Amino acid sequence: MAERVVLAYSGGLDTSVGIGWLKDATGKEVVAMAIDVGQGGENMEDIRQRALDCGAVESVVVDAKDEFANDYLVPALKANALYQKRYPLVSALSRPLIAKYLVKTANELGANSVAHGCTGKGNDQVRFEAAVAALGPELTSIAPVRDLALTRDKAIVYAQEHNLPIEQSKKSPYSIDKNVWGRAVETGFLEDPWNPPIEDIYEYTQDPSITRDADEVTITFEQGVPVAIDGERKTPLEMVVAMNELAGRHGVGRIDIVEDRLVGIKSREVYEAPAAIALIEAHEELENVTLERDQNRFKRTLESKWAELVYDGLWFSGLKRSIDAFIDDTQQYVSGDIRLKLQGGRAVVTGRRSEQSLYDFSLATYDTGDTFDQSLAKGFIELWSLPSRISARRELAGD
């Protein structure tokens, strides 16, 4: 049997043409693999058939929406994962899942290499290949767009010459990637960071400047996992889909950021992630009332590192695995309800309650019933500030 390569297949121009390109350049049979992570759009069966029509010897389609939500989005939510404090890792979270299935399919079908459609400028090439190296170290990764300098113009010519079943519509001015966690938009006029985004680029969110009545929703968490909206139980995937609709209606989750890419360049990116931003806001606030102070403070430092590791393509690294263990341990008491007000592009926490809450009204109140012994504060401050006092005396003596 001829050698095979498994291609991460989107159904678009580059990966459709990539089937023939890979075969011509390597002499290998191409197996196309498409993953459904909630990106919407075309029917996955149509995408599967297109790969065969473009020359793939086999075409595999995987419905991974629930797995994506359970095993990738839930850990990201537990970590309150925001790269550079703002980006909820929309694309970065899907890449290790796709890579997992690339390796799995390659092993099942006897392929000795995998391929993807990334360029040499972006983060995704690193994410795919680092994940493949971790899961299938014997496999070779091929990137035809990057390694063979295959431009869009060449792709269009190739498709026409080979009568491939791909519509050659006018090139979109944007590069778009999306899944159920959010949507990423770049290139075109957005490459000038002075240019404001226009309303036409958005799909998951409505214009937040339009006046609408606020919606209030109550999100229920169990050990850090969102399980219900207004008392109605839902799976993680259903939670994300529902919150995309509820929060997206109010323009929640629009992000415009100049991002530090892994490859060393800065890139202007526009994202919309209504469910991600709303759920992270709710989850973080529930942690504020259920986590012990120093545990909560330390977790905030690890959240940033977790986001950086995932952004940098190190989902399967030892450090991330260790941080995951810490985060999972913190979530045992993160159960309760958070009330969110959705309006004008914001998800604002207006209420919180939990049987695991560490908030003690009798200690917090300034009114009658206060059980906090204020007489202890003076001695506490004396001891707390003692190192500073001793150090200051030494410095003054030196003067």
TrEMBL record:
<comment type="pathway">
    <text>Amino-acid biosynthesis; L-arginine biosynthesis; L-arginine from L-ornithine and carbamoyl phosphate: step 2/3.</text>
</comment>
<feature type="binding site">
    <location>
        <begin position="8"/>
        <end position="16"/>
    </location>
    <ligand>
        <name>ATP</name>
    </ligand>
</feature>
<keyword id="KW-0055">Arginine biosynthesis</keyword>
<dbReference type="GO" id="GO:0000053">
    <property type="term" value="P:argininosuccinate metabolic process"/>
</dbReference>
<feature type="binding site">
    <location>
        <position position="259"/>
    </location>
    <ligand>
        <name>L-citrulline</name>
    </ligand>
</feature>
<dbReference type="InterPro" id="IPR018223">
    <property type="entry name" value="Arginosuc_synth_CS"/>
</dbReference>
<dbReference type="InterPro" id="IPR024074">
    <property type="entry name" value="AS_cat/multimer_dom_body"/>
</dbReference>
<feature type="binding site">
    <location>
        <position position="175"/>
    </location>
    <ligand>
        <name>L-citrulline</name>
    </ligand>
</feature>
<feature type="binding site">
    <location>
        <position position="117"/>
    </location>
    <ligand>
        <name>ATP</name>
    </ligand>
</feature>
<feature type="binding site">
    <location>
        <position position="271"/>
    </location>
    <ligand>
        <name>L-citrulline</name>
    </ligand>
</feature>
<dbReference type="GO" id="GO:0006526">
    <property type="term" value="P:L-arginine biosynthetic process"/>
</dbReference>
<feature type="binding site">
    <location>
        <position position="87"/>
    </location>
    <ligand>
        <name>L-citrulline</name>
    </ligand>
</feature>
<keyword id="KW-0547">Nucleotide-binding</keyword>
<feature type="binding site">
    <location>
        <position position="124"/>
    </location>
    <ligand>
        <name>L-aspartate</name>
    </ligand>
</feature>
<keyword id="KW-0028">Amino-acid biosynthesis</keyword>
<feature type="binding site">
    <location>
        <position position="123"/>
    </location>
    <ligand>
        <name>L-aspartate</name>
    </ligand>
</feature>
<dbReference type="InterPro" id="IPR014729">
    <property type="entry name" value="Rossmann-like_a/b/a_fold"/>
</dbReference>
<feature type="binding site">
    <location>
        <position position="119"/>
    </location>
    <ligand>
        <name>L-aspartate</name>
    </ligand>
</feature>
<dbReference type="InterPro" id="IPR023434">
    <property type="entry name" value="Arginosuc_synth_type_1_subfam"/>
</dbReference>
<feature type="domain" description="Arginosuccinate synthase C-terminal">
    <location>
        <begin position="174"/>
        <end position="390"/>
    </location>
</feature>
<dbReference type="Pfam" id="PF20979">
    <property type="entry name" value="Arginosuc_syn_C"/>
</dbReference>
<dbReference type="InterPro" id="IPR001518">
    <property type="entry name" value="Arginosuc_synth"/>
</dbReference>
<protein>
    <recommendedName>
        <fullName>Argininosuccinate synthase</fullName>
        <ecNumber>6.3.4.5</ecNumber>
    </recommendedName>
</protein>
<feature type="domain" description="Arginosuccinate synthase-like N-terminal">
    <location>
        <begin position="4"/>
        <end position="165"/>
    </location>
</feature>
<dbReference type="InterPro" id="IPR048267">
    <property type="entry name" value="Arginosuc_syn_N"/>
</dbReference>
<dbReference type="Pfam" id="PF00764">
    <property type="entry name" value="Arginosuc_synth"/>
</dbReference>
<keyword id="KW-0963">Cytoplasm</keyword>
<dbReference type="GO" id="GO:0005524">
    <property type="term" value="F:ATP binding"/>
</dbReference>
<keyword id="KW-0436">Ligase</keyword>
<feature type="binding site">
    <location>
        <position position="123"/>
    </location>
    <ligand>
        <name>L-citrulline</name>
    </ligand>
</feature>
<dbReference type="InterPro" id="IPR048268">
    <property type="entry name" value="Arginosuc_syn_C"/>
</dbReference>
<dbReference type="GO" id="GO:0000050">
    <property type="term" value="P:urea cycle"/>
</dbReference>
<keyword id="KW-0067">ATP-binding</keyword>
<comment type="subunit">
    <text>Homotetramer.</text>
</comment>
<dbReference type="GO" id="GO:0004055">
    <property type="term" value="F:argininosuccinate synthase activity"/>
</dbReference>
<dbReference type="GO" id="GO:0005737">
    <property type="term" value="C:cytoplasm"/>
</dbReference>
<comment type="similarity">
    <text>Belongs to the argininosuccinate synthase family. Type 1 subfamily.</text>
</comment>
<feature type="binding site">
    <location>
        <position position="127"/>
    </location>
    <ligand>
        <name>L-citrulline</name>
    </ligand>
</feature>
